[in-house]
TrEMBL record, chain A:
Keywords: Signal
Protein name as catalogued: Signal peptide protein
Keyword Signal listed: yes
Leader sequence residues: 1-21
CDD domains in UniProt: PYR_PYL_RCAR_like
UniProtKB/TrEMBL annotation, chain B:
Segments crossing the lipid bilayer: none
Coiled-coil blocks: none
Keywords: Signal
High-level lineage: Bacteria, Pseudomonadati, Pseudomonadota, Gammaproteobacteria, Methylococcales
Pfam family name, one: Cytochrom_D1
Cleaved signal peptide residues: 1-22
Protein name: YNCE-like beta-propeller domain-containing protein
Span of domain YNCE-like beta-propeller: 26-100
The organism's place on the tree of life at top rank: Bacteria
Gene3D superfamilies found in the cross-reference section: YVTN repeat-like/Quinoprotein amine dehydrogenase
InterPro entries in the record: Haem_d1_sf, Host-pathogen_enzymatic-act, WD40/YVTN_repeat-like_dom_sf, YNCE-like_beta-prop, YVTN_b-propeller_repeat
Organism encoding this protein: Methylocucumis oryzae
Length: 187, 318
């Protein structure tokens, strides 16, 4: 019995020290905005994968293969942080594209449970998103959706890397992007 | 015997007509709203929404259609739902990473994969006593049991492999490499072929379920999650999470013959007992798409709850 308990402890120890991709529960965020401008005009602002200048806080964007599937863009933020994203799907006819974060720079390092944890610029993991412009006569509706996990993949996350931190950061990002897009398109 | 059953049935009908049903139910877990939606597959309406705490994810229905088991990772176990009374009747603790869940075709054994402990717990379905714990590969997820109740197959997600277990003595007879990060697995009705949906390599591995030889690898779409068979095992339907679609594969030619748009982030998928309607849980949209396997089109979309996953075999046989 003792032996079994000891083995159990060892197993728990290994499980905790390994990073799992899907232990926590996947989260989602979705924001929509109605813009008083034709869809074609709105799509024209966001349709270049290598141009994220419409998103507040972005300094520059580069992409290696333009709007082709697999194109990798690096978004450099005003604060120097970077987010790398791969284009997964691009559909001109439905005015939409999907992408996935493949890498991010570290915003800060915190100590949690005796271990140094790197908090990425967007405190999420395994982030996939899509943006779509829908035509509604003279106006348009833009929907920006994201699915992701919290940044901390083990049990008992620190406050900087829990679900709330992830949800707040993503929702803020989507909202500020859409609000600014509306402003640009309605100008 | 039949006569007796008919009498009993009649009495039950009189006693509690609301608890009697003849239609197959689809049991859909809504992970973010922490509930389970019961869909009557005749009317295609949600007839009950049952609160289930613990971020419900996986589903296993009993062969008699009277109960189902819902894995609850954050409650470290599973919940038992009485499908006649339509309520949660019991919760059972298993381990910290309870996710994949399945019942043997004879209805006697329940299997719960533990994502964190790299094992599968085997329990009896009456008192939920643990019969044994089988060590498998890393982060076991999808489970499948052969129709003769002899073999258990486990997808080891982080080990990129599938283990075959002999349920006569609970030992792992073989572990073979498949695509990257296998998640959902499905076995054909004769128990001869096994299909694994590989999340990271965007493909499906086809295995000989007897020898565990890899027969083929079929490319599907972005982030395949789970699969189900329909029309006499002739068609395999695979959910592609990040593509919002279902790939339809001809199991003879192993070619993708159609790509159907469903809701956003489709996850769990299962086939109705009519062998023709395929139900797909759309995680992002909180809906279920119903696909007609013959016409190859979506014939209905049903609103369920937030974060519909329905991972496992979630439709009762009657």
């Amino acid at each position: 019995m003792k032996k079994i308990m000891f083995t159990g402890l060892l197993v728990s120890f290994f499980a905790m020290s390994t990073v799992y991709a899907h232990g926590p529960v996947r989260q989602k965020a979705e924001e929509e905005i109605t813009i008083n401008a034709p869809a074609i005009k709105v799509w024209g602002i966001i349709n270049n994968y290598d141009d994220m200048s419409w998103l507040p806080g972005v300094k520059s964007t580069t992409a290696n293969k333009g709007n082709s599937k697999g194109s990798v863009r690096v978004i450099t933020l005003d604060n120097g942080g970077t987010i790398t994203e791969e284009l997964k799907k691009y559909d001109e006819s439905s005015m939409s594209y999907s992408y996935k974060i493949t890498d991010m720079s570290v915003a800060k390092t915190i100590n949690h449970a005796g271990v140094d944890e790197k908090v990425p610029v967007l405190p999420v993991d395994n982030y996939a998103a899509s943006i779509e412009v829908e035509s509604k006569g003279d106006t348009s509706v833009v929907a920006w959706k994201a699915a992701y996990y919290r940044a901390y993949m083990n049990n008992n996350p620190p406050a900087e890397m829990n679900e709330e931190a992830a949800n707040t950061a993503v929702t803020t990002l989507l909202k500020s992007g859409l609000t600014n897009l509306k402003m640009l398109a309605e100008k | 015997m039949l006569k007796t059953n008919a009498v009993v049935f009649g009495l039950l009908l009189l006693a509690a007509s609301t608890f009697v049903r003849a239609n197959a139910l689809a049991v859909v877990t809504n992970q973010l709203s922490e509930s389970v939606s019961l869909i009557d597959t005749d009317s295609r309406q949600v007839i009950a929404t049952i609160p289930v705490p613990g971020k419900p994810a996986g589903v296993a229905v009993t062969p008699d259609g009277k109960r189902c088991f819902i894995s609850t990772p954050e409650a470290e176990g599973f919940a038992v739902i009485d499908l006649m009374q339509r309520k949660l009747v019991q919760t059972v603790n298993v381990g910290p990473g309870a996710l994949g869940i399945a019942v043997s075709p004879d209805g006697h054994k329940l299997f719960v994969a533990d994502w964190y402990h790299n094992s599968v717990a085997v329990l009896d379905t009456h008192e939920f006593k643990r019969l044994t714990t089988i060590n498998v590969g890393e982060s076991p997820s999808g489970l499948a049991i052969s129709p003769n109740n002899r073999w258990l197959y486990v997808a080891n997600r982080m080990s990129d492999s599938v283990s075959k277990i002999d349920l006569a003595d609970y030992h792992v007879t073989k572990t073979v490499s498949v695509g990257k990060h296998p998640f959902g697995i499905t076995l054909d009705s004769s128990g001869l072929k096994l299909y694994t949906a590989n999340v990271q390599s965007d493909d499906v591995t086809v295995l000989d379920a007897t020898t565990m030889a890899v027969l083929a690898t079929v490319k599907v779409n972005l982030l395949p999650y789970a699969a189900t068979l329909a029309l006499n095992d002739s068609r395999l339907f695979v959910t592609n999470q990040d593509d919002g679609s279902v790939s339809v594969i001809d199991t003879d030619t192993l070619k993708e013959i159609a790509l159907l748009n469903v809701g956003d982030k489709p996850e769990g998928i299962d086939t109705h007992p009519n062998d023709r309607s395929v139900y797909v849980a759309n995680w992002f949209d909180g809906t279920v798409s119903v696909v007609d396997a013959k016409q190859l089109k979506v014939i209905d979309t049903i609103k369920t709850g937030e974060g519909s996953r329905a991972f496992g075999r979630f439709i009762t046989t009657h």
